[in-house]
Write a structure and sequence with these properties.
Blueprint: H1 2-25, E1 39-50, H2 60-65, E2 76-80, E3 83-87, E4 91-98, E5 104-108, E6 111-115, E7 119-126, E8 131-136, E9 147-153, H3 155-158, E10 170-171
Parallel strand pairs: 1-4, 3-9
Antiparallel strand pairs: 1-2, 1-10, 4-7, 5-6, 8-9
């Protein structure tokens, strides 16, 4: 019995040593591929949602824009699209279209672009850090409605994914 136990112990020790030796010689996992910044193009248009010129089309707006009305002295504009998603390190090429007479602006942290009426304006923005950043129009009476957000995804989180999943803009 003792001899049989010694043989079992030796066999167990030998197989444990073989496993340990194999574990030491295994290769480290391959590093994750890193994300390569992309150049993305997005067109943003300023659009009127509720403006005094629509009073004849939508009768309920007459009282809203009248003296004491909820929209007195205001007009409701928006950016379309109002959310832009890119990845940290990406370069965003913006085409900003203001098809109407009213002046607007497109403001991000580190970028402010004036949008005169009836114009198309080009701008470039490099996403230097991940986060969610406000997009606003600097015309006080257009706030808080004329706003949006720039969503900048972490480059580390995007490593190894396809660029098509990272943006609602086109990849060049």
């Amino acid at each position: 019995m003792r001899i049989q136990l010694r043989r079992s112990t030796r066999a167990l020790l030998a197989s444990t040593a073989a496993l340990a030796a194999g574990a030491c010689t295994q290769r480290a996992p391959a590093p994750l591929p890193s994300y390569r910044p992309q150049s993305r193009s997005v067109t943003v248009t300023t659009v009127p949602l509720l403006v005094k010129e629509q009073r004849s089309v939508f009768p309920f707006l007459a009282s809203a824009f009248a003296k004491g009305g909820t929209l007195e002295g205001k007009e409701v504009y928006a950016f379309s699209p109002s959310t832009i998603t890119i990845v940290e390190g990406d370069t965003l090429h913006l085409t900003l279209i203001n098809p109407e007479d009213d002046v607007h602006s497109f403001v991000l942290p580190d970028l402010a672009v004036s949008l005169p009426g009836n114009t198309t304006t080009q701008a470039t923005y490099v996403a230097r850090r991940a986060g969610i950043f406000p997009i606003t129009c600097a015309v006080a009476s257009h706030l808080p409605m004329m706003s949006g957000q720039l969503v900048v995804l972490s480059a580390n989180a995007m490593a190894g994914t396809s660029t098509a999943t990272a943006s609602n803009g086109s990849t060049k």
